[in-house]
Amino acid sequence: MRTPEKEINRLTRICLVSLFSLSLVTGCDRQQPMGKPAATTVDSFSFDPNPSTYQPFPRGDVLLTGAIVLDGAGNRFDHMDVLLQDGRISAVGEEIQAPDTAVIVDASGRWLTPGIIDVHSHDGTYLLPLTSQDFAISDLSEISEPNAAEIWIEHGINAQDFAFRRALANGVTTIQVLPGSVPVFGGRSVVLKNVPAATVSGMKFPGASQGVKMACGENPKSHFGESGDAPTSRMGEIALMRAAFLEAQVYQREWQDYWQQASGEKPPRRNLELETLAGILNGDFRVHAHCYKADDMSVLLGVASEFGFRIDAFHHAVEAYKVPELFVDQQICAAVWSDWWGYKLEAMDAIRENAAMLDAAGVCTIMHSDSPVVGQRLNIEASKSMGAGRRAGIDIEPRQAIAWLTSNPAKALGLGDQVGQVKPGFNADLVLWSANPFSIYSHADQVYIDGALVYDRFNEAEQPRRDSEMAMPISEASP
């Protein structure tokens, strides 16, 4: 769909931008050989030239006593103790004996949950209030063409964004930052530990898989207009996807043949766009699809079936309640809002009962943000959905709804064995709430990440702020 002149200009633009990023200097020319980087396993496109430099904050043994625990696995336990050691949950039970060196925290009458996980965030790229005044400030999407699969969102994240700190103060411990939904293929996501850091690498969740953002529906077809090499309809979007995956299949086979041969063979030429798409086919990345309508989701599942890849979650999914069987049969998660409605045609059939109906049907249900503002109040978003379900005759208890914010998003990110539950062996990512976390009057009192206290509502020294906030009075800088 691209003319040679457009492709040359496109490659030149990518290379010029890449020269400013150490991570892409060696890959600037899309025709450079990939070889077998040290961090690459055979038959994998998932090597990372920008590995995580995250280090847990100072921590010791902590015993939280007498808490009301929502464990993220559907259970509620009253008057429970939870012991944190070496960054993990080591014991959950009654009257646990802590080591002599442990810090004892009286959690009597307060609620303890896993840390909240925001599976769909644009923190660090859609900066408020600046972006609301000038969208050009945003690094949300690369909109030069409809296939931006070569983009890595981590290359555009401002780790100093206020939104990270605000989310932390409201119990969000893990964040997936996704590219925007203008391109059909938006590029790769990154999963972050929500800790203060000077750079993105200092926040990257060690070992977490990258995701890939795909989009269908109104956004891609309406943006590029009459450019001549971009889809202007839903049919064109799907045709572009299929053509791209056909090309990626060839690229995948070339590299698999090379990896299986003896050393010394000349490697195929690299193509950053096809690298991502081949990684999808290879199962190296988790696919997160922006789709609103039931028919769009069904069609995209057909593309996934044709090319043999898995969709891990449909995001926004405002019509998911119409087709819960698609999610249950293929074990796909639905990441939804509580009540966003009517701002474009494909959102007209949104209903407030969506999350409750999906949960009742056995769907892996997730509350997501898509907004720095909503990302600070995900517990209240879940509460609104619980209320809508209750009014419709679907009674969702807190012990169930907490999974929408914890274990279910962990599953969608491939981290379900590390975070999202209050369970021995899991990372000690926890939130101690002043009251029921689904109450508008509740606050996150203390937040732990890997057993380290990273936020304390009662201690200004444990309320991280970015440098530009340091001159502000605490009353103005606090959420």
CA-based gyration radius:
23 Å
Biggest sheet statistics = 8 strands, mixed
Number of strands: 17
Give the CATH class of the domain at 33-55 and 115-421. Alpha Beta
The ordered H/E elements are HEEEEEEHHEEEEHHHEHEHEHEHHHEEEH
| CATH architectural designation of the domain at 33-55 and 115-421 | Alpha-Beta Barrel
Strand content: 15-25%
| Structure class | alpha/beta
| Beginning-to-end CA distance, first to last residue | 48 Å
By CATH's scheme, which homologous superfamily of the domain at 33-55 and 115-421 applies?
Metal-dependent hydrolases
What is the number of helical segments per DSSP (H or I, 4+ residues)? 13
CATH level 3 topology of the domain at 33-55 and 115-421: TIM Barrel
Helix content: 25-40%
Low-confidence stretches: 1-41
Spatial shape: globular
Q: Mean of residue pLDDT?
A: 88
Walk me through what this model shows.
With 479 residues, this protein is of the alpha/beta class. Helices cover 27% and strands 19% of the residues. It has helices at 4-18, 130-133, 162-168, 218-223, 234-260, 272-282, 294-307, 324-330, 354-360, 378-391, 398-405, 407-412, 474-477, and strands spanning 62-70, 76-85, 88-93, 103-106, 111-114, 116-121, 172-177, 185-188, 190-193, 211-215, 286-291, 311-316, 333-336, 364-367, 430-433, 444-449, 452-456. Strands 1, 2, 3, 4, 5, 15, 16 and 17 form an 8-stranded mixed beta sheet that branches. Strands 8-10-11-12-13-14 form a 6-stranded mixed beta sheet. The longest helix has 27 residues, at 234-260. The termini are far apart.
